[in-house]
């Protein structure tokens, strides 16, 4: 759509993904005139929901399951669960170990522990202090890690657990293979080397949310979250200009604040000599991680898992034991494509009938690949699913596959197919993208970074945009009280 030919703009936002929209909503709620520019023909970025295989089959372009939907401080302020209908599966995630045998992460921590046999008590002891402080854990990990935590007990417990599970002592609590596999399946979301403190921290946080609020599924897909944010923005006078690629700062209209949901390297190209040399070099040195290859399926029936309990899971981590998954992940980091890869699978249509025609189903999957890979991984994914769901191939009606390179072509923020917006190593979480108390503010007056490449990092949570907008409100407009974002405001 074309921009409105009206008076001046207070705030320009580049990128209509969840972070860009969070920034725009926050600024509009403060009474400012906001315009968002989006390269794609629709808002949402990787959080969009589209028909990728057959008519009537609605697939999430990026994230499908949303562990942060109820935990993100921005979404809590925004009242997301009052704006979008969610279903929260009783089984947050599961880890098949062999055909017919799985480790199951129920929302109920005690029920999970009961199913883990001799390691159940150790698993519960590891996670219960975090689950009991889940909101504090979310707030600690939801901003700059340089801040003094409001709940130092939660911070100390999380740090100690991450140090343990990120070291060679990660198996000292356990005797069997189920609990370690369950933890590793969650930590493998990070695309990092194991054991490692950052990978362990990611897995512990995701597991905490799984046993606190669960991993919810939005009715209508991730696009429903985007639609709620767009509706609020427009209700408060903001506008979105889609199908409009921004090629540099000079191409933007004059505004008192500009918030960029782009990568550090893109910002360095756009700003060039306007940036101090040390800052520009830090942007250019910013490291990206491994990529993902995505495969979506239209199915004639639900996935025929050998273990019937997997049919109740919102998310299934396919990869076998901890050792199997680590071997696969390390192969990817070494630049190869493992024969038996780690595959993350979700079947939202089991919980949300709007995703497919009656009696049919969708399946969302991705697998990790070397950065920039151009290899189609549909056969590797199908083979891995069939290890735990015999005859899965017979249920396939249509397939849509994207390589890591194609993911990057679709969304330039996914450099090399990296869905994390940059490797979430410990160094790049503390200083993301630079080591500053306010990492969203750049050296150029009025310019702010608001993407997953800034704190707090990856995930559909809107936090990077929210923090960037609040920084801009304080510094550029003198607005020190954050605007009320709730539906009733």
In whole angstroms, the N-to-C terminal distance is 28 Å
Strand content: 15-25%
Compute the number of helices: 17
Spatial strand sequence of the major β-sheet: 7-6-12-13-14-11-15
Structural class computed from helices and strand pairing: alpha/beta
Q: Overall pLDDT, averaged?
A: 96
General form:
globular
- The count of strands amounts to 16
Unreliable runs: none
Amount of helix: 25-40%
- Rg, alpha carbons: 22 Å
- Main sheet overview: 7 strands, mixed
Q: What's a quick, concise take on this entry?
A:
By secondary structure, the chain is of the alpha/beta class.
Question: How would you describe this structure to a colleague?
Answer:
There is one protein chain. The two termini are 28 Å apart. A hairpin with a 2-residue loop joins strand 6 (91-98) and strand 7. Helix content is 35%, strand content 16%. Strands 7-6-12-13-14-11-15 form a seven-stranded mixed sheet, with helices on both faces. The chain is globular and about 60 Å long. The chain contains 17 helices and 16 strands. The mean pLDDT is 96. With 489 residues, the protein is an alpha/beta fold.
Which features would summarize this protein structure in a list?
alpha/beta, 17 helices, 16 strands, 489 residues, five-stranded parallel beta sheet
What topology emerges from the helices and strands here?
Elements (H helix, E strand, L loop, with lengths): L10 E4 L3 H12 L4 E4 L11 E3 L6 E3 L12 H6 L1 H4 L2 E2 L3 E8 L2 E6 L2 H6 L5 H12 L2 H8 L10 H14 L12 H10 L9 H16 L4 E2 L3 H14 L3 E3 L15 E4 L3 H8 L5 H9 L5 E9 L13 E6 L3 H12 L9 E4 L14 E9 L8 H11 L7 E7 L1 H7 L15 H5 L16 E3 L13 H15 L12
